[in-house]
Specification:
2 domains; 12 strands; 8-stranded parallel beta barrel; single chain; alpha/beta; two-stranded antiparallel ribbon
Length: 455
Amino acid sequence: MLKKGKNNLLNYNNAKYELKEITEPNLFRDIFPYTSIPVISFDNEIVPTNLPDKFWITDTTFRDGQQARPPYTVKQTIELFKLLHKLGGKNGVIKQSEFFLYSEKDKEAVTKCLELGYQYPEITGWIRAVKSDLQLVKEMGLKETGILTSASDYHIFLKLKKTRAEALEDYLSIVKEAINNGIIPRCHFEDITRADFDGFVLPFAEKLMELSEKNNIPVKIRACDTMGYGVPYVEAALPRSVPKIIYSLNKKVGVPSEYLEWHGHNDFFKGLINATTAWLYGCAGANGTLLGFGERTGNTNIEGLIIDYISFTNDFNGIDTTVITEIAEYYKKELNVQIPKNAPFIGSEFNITRAGIHADGILKNEEIYNIFDTTKLLNRPIDVLINDKSGVAGIAVWINKYFKLKEKINKRHPGILKIYDEIMKQYEAKRTTDFSNEEMEELVKKHIPELFNNK
């Protein structure tokens, strides 16, 4: 019998889901033909939104984030961990950070980060579903660990070479072992967006909740969109619909929102929107990495999650958004990372315009063409680059900013008109590059020397 709970939502309190043992894997070939683009199927059934009262961000920069780039040194890990702490603030908007535990370097990094004494992010581990790995968690003194518990038949049959029953038995065994050692298990339902919900995902989740209730300890579930197949459309069908994935776990088998976490990849450009959709439908934790680094196309980017968290809550809750710029600078200067110039919030040109019509608006009021006060929130003033599309307005904006003029120069100033003429002559002569600051300085010195002399 269904019961109605908070917000008149249906709770499937008495439903029971039995493992469906099969002899051949269910690969959903109608959805994942492999030789063509995956199909987004729709059942047009609607599930309600259910944003948790409290939700947060979790980090996997030092685990999944290292699987597509050179590994961080211990020193780099410590510095980035400090920045995560500073970004998420004392209230723990970035609640946890996940680490590998296998190498001596991994262990040293964990030890050094633990010595910082931060409450947030809490350091957690990541292990395979084997007891020898659990020993590593015990040795490091961690209170929680992620456990790889692959959910799709692609993994159970084709990789692990097991039946569903065998996989389930192995997973439950390591979960029980973690509980017996006082360690909170976080089961990573790998490849959940290709998994059989009624036949494996829900029966497994239900047994985990039984263990949680019996032992009075949280047993968490990370819904892992391992291949980026998830879609944010509520009308879409399982196993690809993020709303229905979270709703099914939360309402059909009673996984509390605070026990749920979303981990997504960006293979189909949906990394960020899927994570925020998971929040919206009842998942408290959204997992990501700094700059979105992760296997293949990467993970959900934490800087995007931070901005969306503030948008959802209308509350900074201790977040320091200017740290986003510090993080970008650290990656560029210390790690030699080439960040795309147009990357939102962190690219060198994310709030720069070359268009004269935009520059004209900026001259009147920068709010017209700036997404928010980027000077205040990201320590990144709006800027312009000069080319053949910038016009006299662009030149005026560049001069006002570069020379930090309190009395703004007008775009109709005779000197600006002369600078514009010289710029356009170069483009008429087949120039194709932007003007550098040094080149603009020379033009100002030539045509508006009083500004240069006062600089």
